[in-house]
Amino acid sequence: MGHHHPMEDSNRSTNHRLETLVSQRISRRAVIKGGSTLGVGMMFGGLGLAGCSETSDAAASLKLGFAAVPKSTADVVTVPAGYTAKPLVSWGDPLFAGGTLPASIHDLTPAQQEAALGDHHDGMYYFGLSAAGLPDRSNSLRGLLAINHEAITEDFTHVKGPTFNNLDAAGRLQAADAAATPPKLDSSRTSSDECLKEMALHGITVVEIEKSVSGYRYVQGGSFNRRITPYTPVLLSGPASGSDLVKTKYDSVGRKARGTLNNCANGFTPWGTYLTCEENWAGYFGQYGTVTPEQARYGLGRHGFQNLRWYTAPDPVGTGDAADLMSRFQLNATGADASADYRNEANTFGYVVEIDPYDPSSTPKKRTALGRFSHEGCWPKAIKGKRLGFYMGDDSKGEYFYKFVTDAIFTGTESRQNDILDNGVLHVAIFNADGTGRWQPLLASDLALGMTAAEIAVHTRVAADRAGATKMDRPEWTAVHPGNGEVYLTLTKNDQRALVATPGKQAVDPANPRAYKDHDGGFSKTGNNNGHVIRIRETSDDPAATTFRWDIYVFGAEADAPTNVNLSGLSDDNDFSSPDGLWFDPRGVLWLQTDDDAYLDETNCMMLAGIPGQLGDGGPITVNNRIDGASAAVVTVAGKKVSADNLRRFLVGPKGSEITGIDMTPDRKALFVNIQHPGELGGFADYRQTGAFVQQSSFNALETVDGQKRARSTTLVITKDDGGEIAL
Ligand code: FEO
Ligand code: CA
Ligand code: CA
Questions:
Q1: Is-contact 607 591, C-beta < 8 A?
Q2: pLDDT for the residue numbered 38
Q3: Index of the ligand 1 atom closest to the CA of residue 492
């Protein structure tokens, strides 16, 4: 796994009600099909379903129409025969008139970077534009892509990587730091310019694209083009806004903040705005003072786990929005109160942020009602006449699955300027062993939580601990089936899943039923190494339902894994590890993307297309967990066997890349897919930058000298050579 993407594992709560479970059987009742059909006016998780006439029956008649792409460790993008994948926008591509690409990506200045595509493309959404430049959700010829830039490959960013002083003897940052008495200030960044550029590599891009005679291209100088970075002013809205928890020296009344960070998966709203989700923001903060229990619950500590340490760099001279750009990431309370320092700065990150892509001057709004955690996807389930549901994963080991239900009833006529996401109820999922589950509301009126609405919004994990939520195997993206409204959630992996619970380990349970040893490849991993995809059906298909049924859609595995691991019967045409990105296209094709570290000895990360059926269409699967032949934990769950007919590999990425972020044009003839951090295992051997640059991938690099190429994160556009619809 890439060094950029460490997963903190702060959940030591003892809430799990199933931790002693050794053997559970699901009643047959729990796997009986739901079978309801859709009424007029239902619209699940997507727009443009004219009249919403597509039903699960229609989805069931879909057939995949491409040849499976073989697994590969080659440093190329592979798509099926008859398809072409081309770079559309990449790290460093200039957004505005006059911008140019340098000869090497590391030569970008901070100002150039702020006016160019960022790094580590992640979640993404296509917003159509009419020929006249007005919102037109059905136009495939012109549109805006909103693209998350999650993180950076820091060794690629500067000619010799980031500059630090005061390194320990091994040239590493962490080793000598923690033990010193009194603690020394450790290694520091020496260059504000480096840090500013790193900030500008993060955030969001909105970029105009158009279809020309030679295919899709991006429009440099397009009037909607925009960058949002970790220093762009944003508004805090919802329950945390104005509370003591978010007051800072930047805004002593707690209504404004600066920037968005570690934007991973995404969502959208039916009214045409983009939702970007802040995931590993905690890694950017330091706390030289006392770490509070709430900070610890989010993995905040003396140093961030991203190793960038912006808070150790000198602040550039500036006032207002430009003041304290670096030092605000240091949480130590040094002033008389919260309005005199940045003790609360971390409380202004960790949210779902709503952005109007059609208004380049709009101020992003952090929707604190949707909770604060390591946000992954935020996908809506929208049915006219009902409240909206937004489904969200908290991607850390043993964290939870959330749903936000709006107070507002969905009409389909909402304007883009509204505050619907400020009012509603956050819920957290509790999975029962019998295939049912319930959504526990997190309410200030719940005396068992003992928290105000602002505290629930900011310290959401603490509230969810008290609510008894089910600890999951790293909840990532969510997707809503456009036909039957079922909600899918990727659980990417969890090396802390074990046969029995111990401090820091979660015992297998029916919803997270696997703990085993990787059988080959020398990784010696234990736990849920390959991940799985769970799906739920809301009671009465209501987004506001407080109960649901669930089963397992598919278990990740290597095709040659033992049958107690390869539980879904994966073959060479569709075996995968660590599902992460997840998206239903408007036809009901499920797209599954991987961010893997367990199968890289045999294949780079990949994307698959599936026709997943519906909840209950599998049967009981007995999970016979073994680690080193030791004690077994047998769990029986409702799950599914898949075949190459209904799940098939569509793409394999270049070396060292993760496949993440996807959308398609409304005509379904162009697919946009992100290649994140190709070559990320390259770079310098240590933080002294004394060694040579080691190149892992040359994918879409600017540099011409082999061995020196720094591969670039890229949005691909994939089309079918005969001009037809993708995948079918
Ligand atoms: Fe950024 Fe959890 O993937
Ligand atoms: Ca193998
Ligand atoms: Ca990931």
A1: yes
A2: 30
A3: 2
Tell me if 278 CB under 6 Å of ligand 1.
no
pTM over 0.90: yes
Q: What is the Å distance from ligand 2's center to 550 Cα?
A: 30
Q: Ligand 1 in contact with 7 (CB < 6 A)?
A: no
Nearest ligand, measured from the Cα of 579: 3
- Ligand 3 (ion): which residues have CB within 5 A? 580, 595
pLDDT for 91 beyond 50: yes
- Count Cα atoms within 13 angstroms, Cβ side, for 540: 8
Average of per-residue pLDDT across 550-566: 96
Atom of ligand 1 nearest to the CA of 151: 1
- Residues in Cβ contact with 61 at an 8 Å cutoff, skipping those fewer than 6 apart: none
Q: Is the CB–ligand 1 distance for residue 580 below 6 Å?
A: yes
- Residue bearing the CA closest to ligand 1, atom 3: 264
Span from the CA of 460 to the centroid of ligand 3 (angstroms): 21
Atom of ligand 1 nearest to the CA of 280: 1
Is the CB of residue 457 less than 8 Å from the CB of residue 368? yes
**Cis peptide leading into residue 182 (ω within 30°):** yes
For the chain, how big is the Rg over CA atoms in Å?
24
- Ligand 3 centroid – CA 724 distance (Å): 31
Centre of ligand 2 to C-alpha 85, Å, is 28
> Count of alpha carbons within 13 Å of 402, Cβ hemisphere only?
32
Centre of ligand 1 from the C-alpha of residue 395, in Å: 6
- Please choose, from the candidates 560, 431, 426, the residue with its C-alpha nearest in 3D space to the C-alpha of residue 491: 431
Beta strand pairing call for 233-237 and 365-367? parallel
For residues 331-350, one letter each, b for 16 or more C-beta atoms within 10 angstroms of the residue's C-beta and e for the rest, the string is bebeeeebbebbbbbbbbbb
In b/e form, how buried is each residue of 59-86, taking b as 16+ CB within 10 angstroms? beebebebebbebbeebebbbbeebebe
Does 538 contact ligand 1 (Cβ within 6 A)?
no
Tell me the pairing of strands 516-517 and 436-441: unpaired
706 CB-contact burial (10 Å; exposed 0-12 / middle 13-18 / buried 19+): exposed
Q: In the block, which residue shows the tokens 């959404």?
A: 125
What is the C-alpha to C-alpha distance for residues 590 and 612, in angstroms, rounded to an integer? 7
From CA 530, how far away is CA 577, in angstroms rounded?
Answer: 4
Gap between the Cα atoms of 526 and 519, Å rounded: 10
Residue 637 has pLDDT above 80, yes or no: yes
Report which DSSP code applies to 718.
E
- The finding on whether 8 has its CB within 6 A of some atom of ligand 1 is no
Give me the DSSP letters along 187-225.
Answer: SEE--HHHHHHHHHHSEEEEEEEEEETTEEEE-TT-TT-
**C-alpha 726 – ligand 1 centre gap (Å):** 26
Closest CA to 395 of 9, 1, 2: 9
Q: Name the pairing type of β-strands 436-441 and 547-555.
A: antiparallel
Atom of ligand 1 nearest to the CA of 393: 2
Q: Is 473 in the pocket of ligand 1 (CB under 6 A)?
A: no
3-class DSSP state of 114: helix
pLDDT in tens, 105-129: 999 999 999 999 999 999 999 999 9
Res. 10: pLDDT tops 80 = no
User: Which of the four pLDDT bands, split at 50, 70 and 90, describes residue 56?
Assistant: very low
Residue 621's H or E segment, with its range, is strand 619-625
Q: Could you tell me the two tokens for 78?
A: 């592979």
Residue located nearest, by CA, to atom 1 of ligand 1: 264
CB atoms within 10 A of CB 238: 23
**Quick one: which atom of ligand 1 is closest to the CA of 395?**
2
Distance between first and last Cα of the chain = 33
Buried b (16+ CB within 10 A) or exposed e, 656-688: bbbbbbbbbbbebbbbbbbbbbbbbebbbeebe
CA 305 from centre of chain: 17
